[in-house]
Amino acid sequence: MKPLSEEQIIQNLSQKEDTSAQYYAAWWLGKMRSRHPQAIPLLLSTITALNDQPVDPDRRGVALNAIRALGHLNKPEAKQTLIDLLNSKDYNIREEAARSLGLMKQRDAVEPICALLSSGLEGAGHQPEGSPLLQEPCEALLKALGDIGLNEPHVMQSISPFVDHSRPLVRAAACRALLQLTKDNRWGHELITLLKHPEALVRRGALLDLGATGWLDAVQEIQSAAIESSLKLVALRGLAESSQSTDVLTVMDTLL
Amino acid sequence: MTADADLATALDALDRATDTASLVIAAQTVVQLHNPKAAPSLIKTLGYNNPAVAAVATKGLISLGNNIVPQLLESLDTNNYGARAWIVKILATLRDPRGLAVLLKAIHVDIAPSVRRSATRGLAELDLKNTEQNDDLAQCFAGLLHAGHDDEWVVRYAAAYGLEQRLPDPSLTPQQHREGLMLLQGLASAQESVTVVRMRASQALDRLSSA
Predict the structure, then answer these.
(1) Is A256 within 8 Å of B200 when comparing Cβ atoms?
(2) What value does the mean pLDDT of chain A take?
(3) Which of A85, A169, A235, B46 is least surrounded by CB atoms within 10 angstroms?
(4) Pair B182, B174: CB distance under 8 Å
């Protein structure tokens, strides 16, 4: 199969009949970091489907991919739409919006994200009966605060309670954010403890969190962790790029 | 008990194990005997689609050394995709030139980036010094050049690593040397979108120019 051209992708996103072509096109534009002038307006236009009653599940899928793509493309035109989506009734939409705003390091998102977390472990971090989800997408919200990087007392206060959450991956997200904001090794050591957790899923999460922090003390621990090399390389890529340290490259070479 | 009797007992246990925990323990027992006759059974477990068992078997097979390479190559015809990926990793680690064709094929057609990455590392490290065919180095080098244009960053990273290993080889033709350097320069430049690949390619260029 011949790969689609950018023009074809743009056409596929602008039509409305074939949602699977739209779904792929939205993903593609983000993955390829498209600079096509129509990319942002078209991605934003797919998000209006979330206002329909009821929301069409296929169009919701396209919108979720569009939200992710907007994060990768990181253009100011998308900022307000993404911030508004933090108040969506849809958990996954709030989650993806938070991720994209974190990726964009959007400072204007800090207050609304802190507001979602302000109810703490009893509110945002509570798991309602009969639901696998917490009340708020806490992992994504905490990580976004860390990625945005606004180190102010009220941001710390929003994050701190979650280092005691019952779910290890929420604790990892809180430690990751605090390590990014404070550079205090204590939070790095907490993440290294989680890197040795009996569940592989937690080890992988902690690994990627360490990779995102740029905390170089983690390099040896990452090298020897009981996790597949592919994921270690992704985490070490994060460390190498944020620290610009060539020592990390030496470790990466051993994992190829 | 003789070594063969120990092996027979251990292989029997491996045959009868059904869940992951007992498979891993049985495979570890077989591996600890360090007996080349265990190779066929260990190779068979690579096809079980069970990463925990395959990881144990892979380490065991690597420790048995280059004598098992013919068996590995034979098994490729019958084994499934999952097994093939592990075998590429084993061949890459053993550095045996007989693995060259398999590694080259993996770089060109394998859908899993981690397999193309391992195969690229294998091309970087294959021991080609004692091979009679001058062609081997040329093929190996062409494989690295191909990997340098892979869609996945980690394969391009491995290609930068590999070019650093191969470019000092005096058997390369001036044309090959030039192509390799140009590729590394491309990977170190703004043409390359991934920072860590640029970092690794720049490091390779620095080391090559100061060597």
Answers:
(1) no
(2) 94
(3) A169
(4) no
